[in-house]
Amino acid sequence: MIWIANIGFLLILTCLTGSICMAVWLAAASLLQKRGNARMIYRLLKLVMWGYTMPLVYLVFFGWNRFMTSEGWVLVTTPTVKVILLVGFFLWLIGVAAYAAYQIPLIYGFRCVRGDRIYATVEMTAVLDRLKKEMGIRKNIVLYQGYRVISPFICGFWRTEIYLPVAHMGERELEIVLRHELIHHKQRDTFWKPAFAIVNGLFWFNLLVWHVSHKMQQWAEASCDESCCRSGIIVKEYFGTIIDMVASETWRFGACSPLWAEGGNELLWRIHCMKRNQNNKIRKSWVAMAAAAAMMIGSCMSVCAATAGASGLYDEMFRVTRDQAKETALVEDVIEHTGTADELFEGLIIEETPDARSTAINWTIKKRVVKKTAYFSRKSGDTIRVAGVIDPDNVTIQVGIIEPDDHLRYIDAKGSFAHTFNLTKNGSYKVYIENLNSVTVTVNGGYS
Fold this sequence. Notes:
Elements: H1 2-35, H2 38-47, H3 54-69, H4 79-115, E1 117-119, H5 122-135, E2 142-146, E3 153-155, E4 161-165, H6 171-186, H7 189-202, H8 207-230, H9 235-246, H10 266-275, H11 281-325, E5 337-340, H12 341-344, E6 349-352, E7 360-365, E8 369-372, E9 376-378, E10 383-391, E11 396-402, E12 407-414, E13 416-422, E14 427-435, E15 441-447
Parallel strand pairs: 2-4, 6-8
Antiparallel strand pairs: 1-2, 3-4, 5-12, 7-15, 8-14, 9-14, 10-13, 10-15, 11-12, 11-14
Helix pairs in contact: 1-2, 1-4, 1-11, 2-8, 2-11, 3-11, 5-6, 6-8, 7-8, 8-10
């Protein structure tokens, strides 16, 4: 149940922050597109992935302890919350499984295309080697021809391969095609395309992800077009070579068909992108830099806002369902006990955690062991809130604080717990957990 709650909460955060980055990119792309800078638009699109990593960074450095000590805390659940989490998790799993099932025949078809291959001729390989040297590419790239290949493509992040149809190509035509594929390699498209496909599968419920995933494929091609034409190839010659291929292009399931073979006006759209490539470069760079900064700042701010909003929503749902379920183990009016360390810790093994910066509790406590945190300062009138989940959930442990005069205040906790200790003294405090059971217990939670 704990890992289901963590996955669900992380999915919500990444979906929110990623969507904000995507929205910023769409706005920036609409401005840059008028100025015809396809390469800059595509580079900014890669920053969208930053929105899907920011929640992880935030959790590591800032947010984890907030989750651990919010009133409802993601790991402390009521029966109603547990049902909601389980239903949502299994619906998400069904969607991921359906997406994977759709991809399996595509992957199989792709493997069949690659399997029916032959090495390219020495002359074709010589052209490839010449272009690699000209473009400063040192990686070994193998050139193949395939009878099932209907359109040139490049694949493989670790072992990169280029596939061409088994058909006659003039040297100039071959040079244009290979330059286009090598630019895909320089753009790291063999990494970014699978990365976006994975994001698409994880966030299948977000329509914006589907839209941007398709845009990614479009702008990857447009970026290659722009780079090829800036390398000295005449635009008319470049697109003339592509148009000559269109007559024989028909879409086939899993056969690595180009976007324009699926129908629509993809090739016409790419030609229009090239026509808008003559505007002022300084203005284009200015807009691109502003967009990149907005995406970075927006993603950072959105993580904080999404964290606070999602935590608050969870707290409210927790309070409502807690009252409905009347779960006395989770309410605040639990009984506090008092004692001294000499009395309560007699005959027990005492372990201390030296890290004073961490307020997370992810402890494994063996039988007849007391585990303490490092000292931290508090003032009279402050509070110490402790929350967590105990495994196994049928054993009772003591969770408490050690006051500056070594006086102990604690509660008996079982399963899930959340309690606030109101402080009346200034000085250094510790949080402790005592296991008097005959079995080892694990406690996942935190204090603040």
